[in-house]
Amino acid sequence: MDYCYHFVAPGAMTHKHSMGSSRTDSRLCTLDRQRQHPIWHRTLSPQTGTIMQNPASAHPTAIIGAGLAGLSAALSLTQRGMAVALFDKGRGPGGRLSTRRADGWRFDHGGQYLTVRDAGLRRVVDGLVADGHAAPWTGHIVRLTADGGVEPHPVERFVGVPGMNGIIQGLIARLPDAARPRFARRALSITGAPGDWHLRMEDGAVEGPFAAVIVAVPSPQAVDLLSPVAPALAMHAGEAVMAPCWALMLGFDQAALPAWDAAFIAGAGAEDRPLSWIAHDGAKPGRAGGASFVAHAAPDWSIRHLEDAADAVAAALLPAFRAATGISGDPALISAHRWRYALPTRPLSDGFLLDPALGIGACGDWCLEARAEAAFVSGARLAAAMGG
Fold this sequence. Notes:
The relative contact order is 0.22. The chain is built from eight helices and 21 strands. It has one domain (30-387): FAD/NAD(P)-binding domain, CATH 3.50.50.60. It is 22% helix and 27% strand. It has helices spanning 68-79, 119-131, 165-173, 219-226, 231-237, 299-304, 310-325, 372-387, and strands at 30-32, 37-39, 61-64, 84-87, 100-102, 105-107, 134-136, 141-144, 150-152, 158-160, 187-193, 196-201, 206-210, 212-215, 241-252, 262-265, 275-280, 291-297, 333-346, 353-355, 360-362. This is FAD-dependent oxidoreductase.
């Protein structure tokens, strides 16, 4: 499986969530199972007879979360002439496409690359490449089999430049100034009524009023925000399952590099085979070079060691890295980072969630499938349904 964040090995996450016939809430977007692709039902609001969001509204739409899904929704709405207010709890752009800097090293410790199958995303990525925010990654990427074999894994891939967060920065640059994210602004709750929503922030401030609200955060966080004001949406969001991932970052002053630039590792998850992915970050386009590596632990291993200290995790994963790469020297830098909500292991496959009567929706990869581009598609489709 070409999971674009690459927190897992290919084929490891193929389980799609199955919805029973009880999921018939007419306010929610659903999936045509027979056609195996989303059918985006434009449900009418019982109050207005139109899609809830009105481009002429005096109030903007609030978007909580400035990752791929939130930025995609913001781009789609602003292109329709609608105002948005975008909030993100992070200190800067990136989210799961962040780039970590430490002691002169740079690591794409979250999402490793982006695949592009959606036509709308293709146009955006072409623009990012033209602007220098992204580049094709044509490195030698393989799959390491359990019996010691090495198989090629050729898929068209793109990376951000000079780090994965370049993709996020490029998307932000396409927004009007007033719509660009406000970072270090964590929304704790949604209050108010349809057409007059407010956000209560972590610092005690209250933002608003907003005509509508889009929640573009991992599903467990979405449940917390939606439960008080949109319990039906929260219930459905709670059916999505997301797994953690421990990321190992290594920098070497000198190292005999492996024959490949990145590798999926089949059969990962056991204590003696914890890593599902290893990438030589320095070999990606637009990088300064150097022997910098990122390795991701498999979901099963990450779940078992979720609350372990980062130093202990780094020490536990290092032998598996050595075994896979053949690098025996001591790293000049070693660090581990825990992604508590790294990837959806049981996405909803709805595309997005929307209650048009409330003017509240949710989007993200967890609404569709375990691909980074699914987050972008989810945000764009939700914005289309809300914006008319």
